[in-house]
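Let us work through a complete example step by step.
Step 1: write down the sequence.
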Amino acid sequence: MRSPLKTKSRLSDARGFTLVEAMIGLLVFAVGVLGMLKFQAVSINSNNAAHISSENTNAGVSAIERLFALDWDEPGARPEDDGNDTIGESRVTFDITTGPSAGTMALVDERGRPSVRLITVTSTFVDQGGTERTTTLRLIKPRM
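Step 2: predict the structure and record it as tokens.
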């Protein structure tokens, strides 16, 4: 016949979790959930910053496409026509120079006139942290 003490101890082992085990499990779960929430917040902020940066780049691309589409001697397409513009929340400046880069002799046509121009567009915006960010795009425009 079995001793009543051994049966009682065997029953106490099979009753389930103790309060300490449950609290440790809850603590591990809470740390995991908090880490996931922090990751979500960082992800949302990064996505917003990327969206703003994309809009800034698109503003620069829009300006460079507009300048490239102008005729060679049309107002706004000549080196003396540098300027500023605002597209959305971006401040866009452009600079048109004769030749591919400063100090480089440009290709010339039969009359000795430069046959290429360098269009430089700088698009600037202020990010959420207050830091000014810029995107610079350059395109060589041939005389057509």
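Step 3: interpret the result. The chain is about 40% helix and 25% strand.
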